[in-house]
Design a protein that fits this description.
The protein is an alpha/beta fold. It contains 4 helices and 8 strands, in the order E-E-E-E-H-E-H-E-H-E-H-E. It starts with a strand and ends with a strand.
Length: about 140
């Protein structure tokens, strides 16, 4: 499922907690890192996080995903993993302070989405969802 680690040696992700990113088909497409000293994201310039939601491939890969009542959305990748550890489904936008049109399109495929985002993002996210006439969402 999750492939998370701390790379060793001379690599772009040295000093980072690294996460493997998968596409909807479960194929590895990129590595995404968070620098352990600064907390800043690190990823190759060919990877565009706006096009994906971390964790969505795990949701699609689950045998019962059609029956899932609610998926949590967060901007914190560590919170996303914590929610999965509690036997719930979660997706993350890689810490972006906004949600892209591509990410909104992915969320619109889900029946119920519970947003667990910082209070300062709630207004902007709610407006974007209303503009998209998205499905049922709630904010925690």
């Amino acid at each position: 499922m999750f492939q998370i680690g701390v790379p060793k040696g001379k690599t772009m992700l040295a000093g980072c907690v690294a996460f493997t990113v998968f596409n909807d088909d479960g194929e590895r497409i990129a590595y995404y890192g968070i620098n352990m000293k600064t907390g800043k994201p690190v990823f190759h310039k060919s990877f565009n996080p706006e096009l994906y939601l971390y964790g969505y491939s795990f949701y699609l890969g689950h045998k019962d995903y059609h029956f899932v009542d609610e998926v949590y959305f967060t901007t914190d990748i560590f919170q996303c993993i914590k929610i999965y550890a509690e036997d719930e489904f979660a997706v993350c936008n890689f810490g972006l302070p906004y949600i892209s049109n591509e990410q909104l399109a992915i969320l619109n495929k889900l029946v119920y989405v519970n947003f667990k985002v910082p209070p300062e993002l709630v207004r902007d996210f709610a407006i974007r969802l209303a503009e998209q006439k998205a499905g049922f969402h709630r904010f925690d």
